[in-house]
Amino acid sequence: MKPHTAIEKQIVALSESLAPITPEIHTWAEKTIFLKWGVLSRGKFHCLDCGHACKPESLKQSAKFTVCSDCKRKLKMHVCNQLHFKEIEYSAVVTCLSDFKIVRIVCSTKQMKKCCLPTYSHTEVMQHWINPKGEVRTMSISTNVFSHAYDAWQYYSPLEIRPKDFQNSPKYRINPYRVYPRLKVLNVLKRNGFKRGFYELLPQVLLSSLLKDTCTETFLKSGQVSWLRYYLESGDQHIKRNWQAVKICLKNNYAVSDFEIWEDYIELLRWFKKDITSAMLVCPVDLNLEHDRLVEKKQQLQRKKHLKKMRLEIQQAQEVYAKEKKQFFGLCFSEAGITISVLENVGEFMTEGDSLRHCVFTNEYFKKKDSLLFSARIDNKPVETIEVSLSKMEIAQCRGMKNNKSSHHKIIMELMQKNLYQIPSRMKKQKREKA
């Protein structure tokens, strides 16, 4: 896109004055960022780095690595019969110009062929310009919009300024395999703790954060690489929310085995209103054990609170249920050790649902005016729950554990069918009493 703002025009002008990437840097990239390959093809071993070819004597076909007998380099083996091989890798050059810190991304291609020396090509594909406030603007060459790959570069296109939201693009997240060791850095970065290492992090992300974020500066100065990597890679703001607890961990050199579990653990401490400035609490010896203990404790408290609320709802529902189904209370019949009786209390619906793990309570069957619910029990333990339709006077459903049929299902159904006549008699009795 064309530069519009003053800062965009300044970056484009400064970019044109940048010296091109030197042959020395290209040579360094050729030696350090690429793997050394060997290939077994048609009974011969080929070194794709020096072009040497020979008949293998002791080399196993399944070996992943070997050493070339000519150039003595360790080679990664590639078993195939193709003629040409290509590898693409990224490197970065960190420099500065005016008040800007610049991360220059170079895409290098290695073309390999059996019995030939490899050839290399290098193209600068991106420039990340970081101002003193840590704000990043990127220039990059164009990509092929019809390609499925996000880095299908059009190498003939010029570097152009990109919009601010380019940081959401996967191209911005390209992490170079190596950073050229001869860096030019601003004094402010040295003051904030930068010591030439990038710790496998995106150079533009680390440098930008180091200029504007005191958390990054603290992690870097204290040598807490794992904290730094988690903070920058996750983009998690919980670190700032728990900053007091984090500083205690840094002070005590506490190694966190799982940062997400640790953050959950701190939230649990806060929920229980514990002192999150206490090293004894913030730095547990067994993080997973303490985390699981607090999770279980919280679940128990929530369950008690939920049950208290549920009891109030049950009490209110019981009044309505008793008014509608009172005439059926006491209805009970048994045979062959099986007892079938009407559920007379809403609390019994909950017990029935918990015992047999079905939805008779969850789906509030006690509110169904046309349904009458029975419990089939053996030795006073629920076996199946039966729903009878009052309008049709037939069994709507009969469910056991997890809505399956029990081994007594046939007997229960026969016993229920034989005693269905008792239900309408209760209904007629109530009508006579009302009359």
From TrEMBL:
InterPro entries: PcfJ. This is PcfJ-like protein. It comes from Flavobacterium psychrolimnae.
